[in-house]
Amino acid sequence: MKSISQTILLLFLSMSLFAQQDTTSALFSSMEEVVITATKTETKLGNVTMPISIISKKNIDQAGSLRLKDILQEQAGLSITNGFGAGIQMQGLNPDYTLILLNGAPLVGRTAGVLDLKRIGITNIKKIEIVKGPSSSLYGSEAMAGVINIITENNGDKKIQFGARYGFGNPNLGWASPIGKSVFKNSDLNFLFITKYKKAALNFSSNAFYVDAISFRPYSSERITQPIWQFTNQLSISTPINNKNNFTFLVRNGYDQIKQNFAINNNGAVSTSFGKETNNDLNINSIYKHSFNENIKSSLNVYATFYKGYQKLNFSNKPDSSYIDEFRQHLYRAENQNDVRLKNMLFTFGAGYVIDQAHSTRYDNVESRKQNQILYAFAQHEWTLSKKLILTTGVRYDHNKIFAAAFSPKFSFRYIANKTITIKGSIGRGFKAPDFRQLYLNFTNNAAGGYSVLGSIDAIKIIQQMQSLGQISEIKYDYNKLSTLKPEFSTGINLGGTVFLNKNIQLDFNGFRNDIEGLIDVRQVATKLNGAQIFSYINIKNAYTQGLELDLKWKATKQISISTGYQLLETADKDELANIKAGKVYIRNADGTSRLLLLKEYVGLANRSNHMGNVKITYENKYGLFINTRLIYKSQWYVGDRDGNGLLNKNDESGDGYFLINVAAGKDLNTKLKLNIGMDNVTNYQDVNYLPNLSGRMIYLSINYTLK
Amino acid sequence: MKKSTIGILAMAALIFNACKNDEVNNVVVNPNDFNVAVSGKIVTVKNLAADTILGVGAMGPYGAGKYTFFSLGTNSKIASTDSATSNWDLAFAGTTIRINAGTSGPGNGGAFVYTGTFDALTTVPIDSTFKIDQAPTYAITKGSGKGWYNYDGPTNLLTAIPGRVLVIRTASGKYAKVEILNYYRGNTTPLSTASDSIKIYDSRYYSFRYTYQTDGTTTF
């Protein structure tokens, strides 16, 4: 931490030397852009008191991104994780701790805490806002590392637009060729329709996507293709009722179907399993806004979302049995928010009620409904003390029916030191409520030795039952720690700012530290008579993540812009750290002999890269031509304990650091017709073991036709 | 595929080593073979098969159910026909390590698991208590995280915990310190992404090192 704060100080000093006093450029005017996610009110980017970044529609189009995963993996400081779908790691925190919103309302349907970003189509959206740092003071649970808000276009000019894209790759052969057996294909069809009646806007879009996704056979390094079909339909109606009232209605449906056919190895006996997995998302959101006058505004938001994931597998060696895995989640939310402006102060306050329900074949019974009710209230005070200084204080209280309440305060500021330097800082609490899986899971993996994972609510009951039947051989020490789970809490500090080194160079920087308490982890609590382990969830770990983010935008010439981002990350489990310092942890040398572990050999939490970065170079001219190259770097990350000391150190199992290079180019042929061509993963980088879903080199061509 | 690659690599390594070593001596050690090497006071044993897996049945993987007996005094395996004698000091089958005492044999054995490094253990601490086998409880404690190993269900891998030393009183009442190095063939734990069949069939091959004090004192 010390080294990071020193680095920040140094940056401040060096930048104030560089800073010049010229304030007329495109970069400066970007500070005028209005954002919503940081404060839940429309605020100019330059006035936001916490780290925020925006991915525009243009960025998404020029990168040729189709799914949320595609574009997020090109952002510095965001890392895509691979278990249970593509998850997002922000500020070094697991995917469970980043809230993902669609127009301000939460998306549900997480598997093992991960919301699969491949499920979310982004071809017809307006922009994505990313807020880093704990945001539970506004958004409640899950907003511990930050918030990603996908904002759809609900207005816009009247038009009809068609798009089609075809892509292919042949990772085994190296150079992509569209012919041959081992070709991986993807295709995408896109339709957008915007019409207006008086002042009302209707916006409809539809997207169909097919991809030969690459996956791997469980417990093997053999790749298989996994054809995925994904459909997204989106409708919004936005209408001003009169000059004081505005109503917006949004409905979105996402459907995927994944075909599965692979060999599984059950303790050496191989059988083929085949079937399909489907995911169905429905989001319905209605927002009613009323302005009492210029200074007092109120809104009512009613939201419902339904998710159903369903997987059915049949086995070649057991034709009369099948495996069904089903998960359903329903969430209903009503929220009221009021904004009152009083001279130089803006008060935002509101309250809401959530009903969250789940069903799963992995709980005791798929028909039994698990339910939580949350009643919450939040308040925020934004105080513009002078043109230079803005202070924002906020707090939220969440009352949960099935576990402890959470109280989340936050304080942040923005200070304009001079025309070129702006400083921002925030400190806040974040939390994540235990999810249904951690409370109710009742899962036994018969395909891998019969170990069981039990949710904390039923674990004691089930183990006692098994004990009375003589099925338990041993109760572990951690069994005594089983109790009602509490939310996981974090305290996050962010300090950074923006510096215009000259009118064409903007540097954003941010140092962060998140201290997480009572992290829920899976621990063995008992052993069955046959030696299989029983695990459950306990609030047991304390960890921290800290680091530094840098983001440099340089408008080199009128046509060429360069942007580069970097994140330095350090993480640790505090108990592991204490054990190492106490000299209780040993490590193995290459020949297998052991010695004491040195502190510098400790690498912290799993699946974290110390260094991540990207460079993006774009050429764009006034004739509608663009060419870009995007380079993405991730350093080595550790995945598994090889030497048996129970923590991760430098000789443990790790994935190698790597570069990915993506290129794209496009041209507006006329006002209606647009062509894009691109190549992802130019160097054909592959890592079957640790990046199983990364396909090799892929080429695509897309065409867009717009009628106005 | 993976296995054959490893095989080819191992063969390449062998040929390479063979070429390199030919002029020095003609002994080429296959890294997967049983081998005992003596270097000063330290004896290193590689790939001691301990009831290795024969197949996978309804109850999971199974072996023949036979122990492999080993003498720390003679640095060699002992025939199972001698199981009722004091000729052996340690017997291995799966994760169970027996000592020659109590319910396991007629010897004067004893053992306990010491936390610390092999090198740092220069003398048996005075307050040590040697336990003896009383089946189903063994002097060298069984169970993940309790004795000398950790077992992880989800990855199906067993790792010997570093910094654990088995302090042994042999059948004849002499002392030895033993460090288990690995539980898998070739002294190498499979990758977590390796197939279950590699994890199963390569398991139960012990590599360990020890120092045996011939004069009967507790100093190594």
- Overall radius of gyration of chain B: 18 Å
Strand order within the widest sheet of chain B?
1-2-14-13-12-9
Relative helix content of chain B:
10-25%
> Helices and strands of chain A: which structural class?
mainly beta
Stretches with pLDDT under 50, minimum 5 residues of chain A: 17-23
Mean pLDDT of chain B: 85
Total helical segments of chain A: 8
Quaternary state of this entry equals: heterodimer
Strand portion of chain A? over 45%
User: How far apart, in Å, are the first and last alpha carbons of chain A?
Assistant: 55 Å
- The backbone outline of chain B, from C-alpha atoms, is globular
Which structural category do the helix and sheet elements of chain B fall into?
Answer: mainly beta
Overall shape of chain A: it is globular
**Could you describe the largest sheet of chain A, including whether it forms a barrel?**
22 strands, antiparallel, barrel
Compute the CA-based radius of gyration of chain A.
26 Å
> What is the terminal-to-terminal distance of chain B?
46 Å
Tell me the number of strands of chain B: 14
SS field, number of helical segments of chain B: 2
Low-confidence stretches of chain B: 1-24
What is the structure about, briefly put?
The complex is a heterodimer of chains A (708) and B (220). Chain A is mainly β.
Notes on the protein architecture:
The complex is a heterodimer of chains A (708) and B (220). Chain A is mainly β and 708 residues long. In chain A, the strands form six sheets. Chain A has a 22-stranded antiparallel beta barrel. A five-stranded mixed sheet of chain A has the order 3-8-9-6-7. Chain A has a two-stranded antiparallel sheet with strand order 1-2. In chain A, a hairpin with a 5-residue loop joins strand 23 and strand 24 (451-454). The longest helix of chain A is centred in the first third of the chain and has 17 residues, at 2-18. Chain A starts with a helix and ends with a strand. In chain B, a hairpin with a 4-residue loop joins strand 10 (149-152) and strand 11. A six-stranded antiparallel sheet of chain B has the order 1-2-14-13-12-9. Chain B starts with a helix and ends in a 7-residue tail after the last strand. The longest helix of chain B is centred in the N-terminal third of the chain and has 20 residues, at 2-21. Chain B has two domains: 1-30; 32-213, no CATH class. Chain B has two helices and 14 strands, in the order αβββββββββββββαβ. With 220 residues, chain B is mainly β. Classes of the chains: A mainly beta (708), B mainly beta (220). At the A-B interface, strand 30 and strand 31 of A face strand 10, strand 13 and helix 2 of B.
